[in-house]
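1st attempt posting a full record on here, be nice pls
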Amino acid sequence: MQTYMTRGTCSRQILFDVTEDNKVTNVKFIGGCSGNLQAMSRLVEGKDVDEVIGLLKGIKCRSNTSCGDQLATALEKYKYKKEHPEEEK
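the predicted structure (as tokens):
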């Protein structure tokens, strides 16, 4: 399970998994608008990481970001760490 601490949103944290074939699963937001975030979690379930990033990146709400934008950022950071394991400490 991956954990991402959000910035600038009502949700405080995002938990998620990525399968070996690069699919997003088990997305859970801690805090925020429960109904909307449950819906977003269901809608991205099983989608490719890059597809989810493309769909959600740049959506703005408060503080020039949104929970969807923060999920996209979390997935980008996940991809970067996966592609650059030597930088992880």
